[in-house]
Every structure is written in structure tokens, then in C-alpha cells.
């Protein structure tokens, strides 16, 4: 007798659900939900019940979360249906774009789709879910490459990442973001920089990336030994080793380098004859042969220094 009552109750429930499903096909085009429209997040509004009690639901909104149980509603215009969704250790949770997520990341107000089966013994629409997709969860780890088209006026500054044939991405940088240029740490960002990779949490809804790390391309030929020419700004001593600060013009811009002159460096006059560093004065024209340091791009490790005024 109890079994017969159970069957009649569930048959009645399925009939009610099926009638709502038929109704939904008529009004889904103009469905407006109380808490928003799930279609804006990519979901449809659907309810399907198979004859074996398997259930598929699209576009339900979570009203309340109690432990691992969601109390949801699905709306068709002014009509709504309450659905209890039970989850367990076997339930698979995924984000909008397919990434997995824990139960703890699901929030009240989120729109979900799910598959599962009727909870045994219930006389209301009560489903044990085998899978839940959270359409509102649009943040996930991602990696992008491209070129910085502009640096944003934020603190710290972020940037707009241009990608060939794809939409631009707004990259947000925090004080903890690791920025490297080649082999060195760098806090500087400039329009035109090539971004080898930027890794972080991407928000599909707002097209923003909260960056954890940014790797910028560095032309390593910059660090090859070459000649520098300029005028002495200061000399730290009268005998080796010393540091000589000099100014020079590169690509129409004035720059100031610090040349580190070690004890074994060649110190020469204009005729390439050995000279004393003590005779080098502020304002003298000098020529230095050395390499820029990777870790400090305004420092030159000099091998030869010539005073063109001696």
C-alpha cells in the first residue's frame, strides 16, 4: 500500500513538472526572472524529467545554501517553481567555461544548471545532483600573450593587452604581482612592450585579468659589451676601483649611467696611453667600453675607460 501511494505521488509530481515544461516552451522567449536573467550568463531556462526519474534543469537560481543543499527557484515569467538540490561528495561542480570548482565557491544568487535524480521518498521537486554547472562563476585561471597597447592610470598601473584577432584584455596589477623583463625583476610597464605571458584570474563577464605574474620580452643584445660616450658627472675616488657617473644622449634622450671601474680596468688618455684615474675631472669627455648589467640597466661594468680631454 505504501509503495502504491509513493508511486501515485511521484506520478502526480512528474505530471506537474511535465505540464510546467510544456508551459515553459511557450513563455521562455519572454521569461524574466525575479533575481535576474540567467540567459545573460549563457544559460537557458529549461526543465526536463525523464520517465526513469532523471532530471535536467537549466537556469535555476540559488535562493539559499544550507551546507551542501541548495534551495533554488526556476522562473518562467510570473510563474516559478521551487527546487531543492542536494549535493554530495560525488557531485561534480564546474564553472561557466568548464573549469572545476569546489562547493564552497558556489554562492547564493548564482544561476546553475544541473543533472541528477529524484531524491527517494520526496513528494516535492527534490533532486540529488550528480553535476552542477555554475553559470555565474565566470572567473578562472588563464594565461594570455600579446602587446601592451596602453598603460592604465591606476595605482599600481595596469595595462591594456592587445591580442591579434582577439578582444583586448584589461590587466589589473597589484603590489604582489611579479613582473619580470628577461631575467630581471622589473616594476616598469610601457606601451609597446611584448608580453610573453600574463597569468592570473580572468573575469569573463568584465573581460579583466587580475594578474599574478607578467613576463615581458627583453632584447638580450642590449647587454652585449659596447662603447659609451659622454661627459663625467662625478668620480667616486682618485684610484681604482672607482665609480664614474656620466651623462650621454641616446635616441635623442639624455641618460645618466654609473660606470663601475674595477681595479684591473684599462685607464687611458685620448692617445690610448695609460693614465691615472685621478686626472679625470667633472665635465671631461670620456669613452667607455663595457656591458650594461641585467640586474641594473643604468649600470655599466667597464673594461676600458678613456679620457678624450687628456
Which features would summarize this protein structure in a list?
single chain, 310 residues, mainly beta, OB fold (Dihydrolipoamide Acetyltransferase, E2P), five-stranded mixed barrel, 1 helix, 20 strands, 49% strand, disordered N terminus
Chart the SSEs and their pairings.
Elements (H helix, E strand, L loop, with lengths): L1 H26 L18 E4 L4 E13 L2 E8 L2 E8 L5 E4 L15 E8 L7 E9 L4 E13 L7 E5 L2 E7 L5 E4 L2 E2 L8 E10 L4 E9 L9 E10 L6 E9 L2 E9 L4 E4 L15 E8 L6 E9 L3
Parallel strand pairs: 4-7, 5-7, 10-14, 11-14, 17-20, 18-20
Antiparallel strand pairs: 1-2, 2-3, 2-6, 3-4, 6-7, 8-9, 8-13, 9-10, 11-12, 13-14, 15-16, 15-19, 16-17, 19-20
Protein architecture, described:
It is a single chain. With 310 residues, the chain is mainly beta. The chain has three domains: 133 residues, OB fold (Dihydrolipoamide Acetyltransferase, E2P), CATH 2.40.50; 80 residues, Nucleic acid-binding proteins (OB fold (Dihydrolipoamide Acetyltransferase, E2P), Beta Barrel), CATH 2.40.50; 85 residues, OB fold (Dihydrolipoamide Acetyltransferase, E2P) (Beta Barrel). Helix content is 8%, strand content 49%. The protein is built from one helix and 20 strands. The strands form three sheets. It has a five-stranded mixed beta barrel with strand order 2-3-4-7-6. It has a five-stranded mixed beta barrel with strand order 8-9-10-14-13. β6 and β7 form a beta hairpin.
